[in-house]
Design a protein that fits this description.
single chain; 6 strands; alpha+beta; 2 domains; about 55% helix; 4-stranded antiparallel sheet; ATP synthase mitochondrial F1 complex assembly factor 2; ATP12-like
Protein backbone atom coordinates (compact mmCIF):
# COMPACT_ATOMS: atom_id res chain seq x y z
CA UNK A 1 0.00 0.00 0.00
CA UNK A 2 1.18 3.53 -0.76
CA UNK A 3 -0.33 4.91 2.48
CA UNK A 4 -1.03 3.59 5.98
CA UNK A 5 -2.27 5.09 9.22
CA UNK A 6 0.61 6.06 11.49
CA UNK A 7 0.86 3.42 14.22
CA UNK A 8 3.81 4.72 16.29
CA UNK A 9 4.60 7.74 18.44
CA UNK A 10 8.37 7.88 18.65
CA UNK A 11 11.22 7.13 16.27
CA UNK A 12 14.75 6.35 17.43
CA UNK A 13 17.89 4.63 16.21
CA UNK A 14 20.10 2.07 17.93
CA UNK A 15 23.29 0.25 17.07
CA UNK A 16 23.08 -3.49 16.59
CA UNK A 17 25.52 -6.17 15.49
CA UNK A 18 24.92 -5.56 11.78
CA UNK A 19 24.80 -1.77 11.86
CA UNK A 20 22.25 0.87 12.83
CA UNK A 21 18.58 0.01 13.31
CA UNK A 22 15.37 2.07 13.25
CA UNK A 23 12.92 1.74 16.14
CA UNK A 24 9.25 2.71 15.85
CA UNK A 25 8.30 2.90 19.54
CA UNK A 26 9.52 -0.54 20.69
CA UNK A 27 9.24 -2.23 17.30
CA UNK A 28 12.27 -2.70 15.08
CA UNK A 29 11.69 -1.69 11.47
CA UNK A 30 11.72 -4.56 8.96
CA UNK A 31 12.09 -4.66 5.17
CA UNK A 32 9.30 -5.84 2.81
CA UNK A 33 10.98 -9.27 2.89
CA UNK A 34 10.86 -9.21 6.72
CA UNK A 35 14.62 -8.70 7.16
CA UNK A 36 15.83 -6.53 10.01
CA UNK A 37 16.19 -2.98 8.65
CA UNK A 38 19.88 -2.32 9.29
CA UNK A 39 21.95 0.40 7.61
CA UNK A 40 25.73 0.79 7.50
CA UNK A 41 26.10 4.36 8.81
CA UNK A 42 24.66 6.34 11.68
CA UNK A 43 24.08 9.35 9.42
CA UNK A 44 21.95 7.27 7.05
CA UNK A 45 20.01 5.84 10.01
CA UNK A 46 19.24 9.36 11.23
CA UNK A 47 18.13 10.41 7.75
CA UNK A 48 15.78 7.41 7.46
CA UNK A 49 14.47 7.95 10.99
CA UNK A 50 13.73 11.56 10.06
CA UNK A 51 11.60 10.34 7.14
CA UNK A 52 9.53 8.20 9.51
CA UNK A 53 9.37 10.92 12.17
CA UNK A 54 8.12 13.50 9.65
CA UNK A 55 5.07 11.43 8.67
CA UNK A 56 1.84 12.84 10.04
CA UNK A 57 -1.40 10.93 10.68
CA UNK A 58 -0.80 8.90 7.52
CA UNK A 59 2.45 7.23 6.45
CA UNK A 60 3.00 8.17 2.80
CA UNK A 61 5.46 5.53 1.65
CA UNK A 62 5.89 7.15 -1.78
CA UNK A 63 7.54 10.17 -0.11
CA UNK A 64 10.12 8.07 1.74
CA UNK A 65 12.82 7.70 -0.90
CA UNK A 66 15.70 6.91 1.49
CA UNK A 67 13.68 4.16 3.17
CA UNK A 68 12.85 2.71 -0.24
CA UNK A 69 16.52 2.75 -1.29
CA UNK A 70 17.55 1.00 1.92
CA UNK A 71 14.88 -1.66 1.40
CA UNK A 72 16.18 -2.23 -2.12
CA UNK A 73 19.77 -2.53 -0.88
CA UNK A 74 18.79 -4.94 1.90
CA UNK A 75 16.34 -7.14 -0.02
CA UNK A 76 18.02 -6.87 -3.46
CA UNK A 77 14.74 -7.97 -5.12
CA UNK A 78 16.38 -8.35 -8.56
CA UNK A 79 19.18 -10.47 -7.06
CA UNK A 80 21.93 -8.66 -8.95
CA UNK A 81 25.59 -8.74 -7.98
CA UNK A 82 28.00 -5.79 -7.99
CA UNK A 83 29.17 -6.18 -11.60
CA UNK A 84 25.59 -6.48 -12.86
CA UNK A 85 24.70 -3.24 -11.10
CA UNK A 86 27.74 -1.51 -12.60
CA UNK A 87 27.04 -2.72 -16.15
CA UNK A 88 23.40 -1.66 -15.87
CA UNK A 89 24.54 1.84 -14.89
CA UNK A 90 27.14 2.11 -17.66
CA UNK A 91 24.63 0.88 -20.25
CA UNK A 92 22.80 4.20 -19.81
CA UNK A 93 25.72 5.85 -21.65
CA UNK A 94 24.38 4.40 -24.90
CA UNK A 95 21.12 6.35 -24.50
CA UNK A 96 22.34 9.22 -22.32
CA UNK A 97 20.02 12.22 -22.46
CA UNK A 98 22.79 14.77 -22.95
CA UNK A 99 24.30 12.85 -25.87
CA UNK A 100 21.14 12.88 -28.02
CA UNK A 101 20.76 16.18 -29.89
CA UNK A 102 18.16 17.63 -32.23
CA UNK A 103 18.81 19.54 -35.45
CA UNK A 104 15.44 21.31 -35.46
CA UNK A 105 14.15 23.61 -34.13
CA UNK A 106 17.34 25.64 -34.24
CA UNK A 107 16.60 27.36 -30.90
CA UNK A 108 16.39 24.01 -29.07
CA UNK A 109 19.51 22.71 -30.82
CA UNK A 110 21.40 25.81 -29.66
CA UNK A 111 20.03 25.44 -26.14
CA UNK A 112 21.21 21.81 -25.98
CA UNK A 113 24.65 22.82 -27.22
CA UNK A 114 24.99 25.68 -24.73
CA UNK A 115 23.67 23.75 -21.73
CA UNK A 116 24.82 20.19 -22.36
CA UNK A 117 28.25 20.67 -23.99
CA UNK A 118 29.87 22.04 -20.79
CA UNK A 119 28.80 19.05 -18.66
CA UNK A 120 29.93 16.59 -21.36
CA UNK A 121 33.28 18.43 -21.55
CA UNK A 122 33.58 18.26 -17.76
CA UNK A 123 32.97 14.50 -17.77
CA UNK A 124 35.49 13.93 -20.56
CA UNK A 125 38.15 15.86 -18.65
CA UNK A 126 37.22 14.46 -15.21
CA UNK A 127 37.40 10.83 -16.32
CA UNK A 128 39.84 11.26 -19.24
CA UNK A 129 37.39 9.74 -21.73
CA UNK A 130 35.77 10.50 -25.09
CA UNK A 131 31.97 10.78 -25.06
CA UNK A 132 30.72 13.20 -27.73
CA UNK A 133 27.16 13.68 -28.96
CA UNK A 134 25.06 12.87 -32.02
CA UNK A 135 21.90 13.93 -33.85
CA UNK A 136 21.48 10.39 -35.18
CA UNK A 137 18.64 8.28 -33.81
CA UNK A 138 21.31 5.67 -33.09
CA UNK A 139 23.07 8.08 -30.75
CA UNK A 140 26.83 8.58 -30.36
CA UNK A 141 29.32 5.77 -30.75
CA UNK A 142 30.70 5.49 -27.22
CA UNK A 143 34.24 3.99 -27.27
CA UNK A 144 34.74 0.73 -25.40
CA UNK A 145 37.57 2.38 -23.44
CA UNK A 146 35.13 4.99 -22.12
CA UNK A 147 32.77 2.29 -20.85
CA UNK A 148 35.66 0.43 -19.22
CA UNK A 149 36.78 3.61 -17.46
CA UNK A 150 33.33 4.15 -16.00
CA UNK A 151 33.13 0.49 -15.00
CA UNK A 152 36.43 0.85 -13.12
CA UNK A 153 35.28 4.08 -11.46
CA UNK A 154 31.94 2.64 -10.34
CA UNK A 155 33.71 -0.44 -8.98
CA UNK A 156 35.23 1.81 -6.31
CA UNK A 157 31.75 2.21 -4.75
CA UNK A 158 30.17 -0.33 -2.42
CA UNK A 159 26.95 -2.21 -3.21
CA UNK A 160 24.76 0.20 -1.25
CA UNK A 161 26.15 3.28 -3.00
CA UNK A 162 25.75 1.57 -6.39
CA UNK A 163 22.05 1.06 -5.72
CA UNK A 164 21.80 4.81 -5.15
CA UNK A 165 23.83 5.66 -8.25
CA UNK A 166 21.62 3.51 -10.46
CA UNK A 167 18.55 5.13 -8.88
CA UNK A 168 19.81 8.64 -9.71
CA UNK A 169 20.72 7.60 -13.25
CA UNK A 170 17.22 6.17 -13.74
CA UNK A 171 15.66 9.45 -12.56
CA UNK A 172 17.84 11.71 -14.74
CA UNK A 173 18.11 9.28 -17.70
CA UNK A 174 21.79 10.18 -17.78
CA UNK A 175 24.98 8.67 -16.38
CA UNK A 176 26.85 11.91 -17.15
CA UNK A 177 24.45 14.18 -15.25
CA UNK A 178 24.31 11.68 -12.38
CA UNK A 179 28.09 11.57 -11.97
CA UNK A 180 28.21 15.37 -12.19
CA UNK A 181 25.67 15.53 -9.39
CA UNK A 182 27.28 12.87 -7.20
CA UNK A 183 30.73 14.44 -7.73
CA UNK A 184 29.23 17.79 -6.60
CA UNK A 185 30.03 19.42 -9.96
CA UNK A 186 26.38 20.47 -10.44
CA UNK A 187 23.49 20.99 -8.05
CA UNK A 188 20.30 18.95 -7.87
CA UNK A 189 18.36 21.84 -9.41
CA UNK A 190 20.84 22.12 -12.28
CA UNK A 191 20.95 18.35 -12.93
CA UNK A 192 17.15 18.14 -13.04
CA UNK A 193 16.91 21.20 -15.31
CA UNK A 194 19.44 19.70 -17.73
CA UNK A 195 17.64 16.34 -17.72
CA UNK A 196 14.35 18.10 -18.60
CA UNK A 197 15.81 20.59 -21.07
CA UNK A 198 13.48 19.81 -23.96
CA UNK A 199 10.42 19.83 -21.69
CA UNK A 200 11.49 23.14 -20.17
CA UNK A 201 11.96 24.54 -23.68
CA UNK A 202 8.42 23.50 -24.60
CA UNK A 203 7.05 25.03 -21.37
CA UNK A 204 8.76 28.31 -22.20
CA UNK A 205 7.10 28.27 -25.63
CA UNK A 206 3.65 26.93 -24.82
CA UNK A 207 3.22 27.57 -21.11
CA UNK A 208 2.92 25.43 -18.02
CA UNK A 209 0.19 22.86 -17.41
CA UNK A 210 -1.21 24.07 -14.11
CA UNK A 211 0.18 22.01 -11.15
CA UNK A 212 1.19 19.01 -13.29
CA UNK A 213 4.58 20.27 -14.49
CA UNK A 214 5.39 21.78 -11.10
CA UNK A 215 4.59 18.51 -9.35
CA UNK A 216 6.78 16.51 -11.76
CA UNK A 217 9.64 18.96 -11.29
CA UNK A 218 9.48 18.86 -7.47
CA UNK A 219 9.14 15.08 -7.41
CA UNK A 220 12.16 14.61 -9.70
CA UNK A 221 14.22 16.97 -7.54
CA UNK A 222 13.23 15.05 -4.42
CA UNK A 223 14.19 11.72 -5.94
CA UNK A 224 17.50 12.97 -7.36
CA UNK A 225 18.40 14.65 -4.06
CA UNK A 226 17.50 11.56 -2.03
CA UNK A 227 19.50 9.28 -4.31
CA UNK A 228 22.54 11.55 -4.17
CA UNK A 229 22.34 11.86 -0.38
CA UNK A 230 22.01 8.08 -0.15
CA UNK A 231 25.20 7.59 -2.20
CA UNK A 232 27.14 10.04 -0.03
CA UNK A 233 25.90 8.58 3.26
CA UNK A 234 26.68 5.04 2.09
CA UNK A 235 30.19 6.06 1.03
CA UNK A 236 31.11 7.61 4.38
CA UNK A 237 32.06 5.52 7.39
CA UNK A 238 32.21 8.31 9.97
CA UNK A 239 29.60 8.35 12.71
CA UNK A 240 27.51 11.34 13.65
CA UNK A 241 28.40 12.52 17.15
CA UNK A 242 25.28 14.55 17.86
CA UNK A 243 21.85 13.02 17.42
CA UNK A 244 19.62 15.10 15.18
CA UNK A 245 16.41 13.50 16.42
CA UNK A 246 16.21 15.34 19.69
CA UNK A 247 13.39 17.59 20.83
Amino acid sequence: PSERKRFYQNVSISQGEGGFEINLDHRKLKTPQAKLFTVPSEALAIAVATEWDSQKDTIKFYTMHLTTLCNTALDNPTQRNKMQLIRAAVKFLETDTVCYRVEEPAALAELQKNEWDPVVAWAEKRYNVAIGSSTSILGPNIPASTKETFISHLASYNMWALQGIEYVITQLKSLILSMGLIDRHITVEKAVLLSRLEEEYQIQRWGNVEWAHDYDLCELRARAAAGTLFVHLCSESSTVKHKLLQD
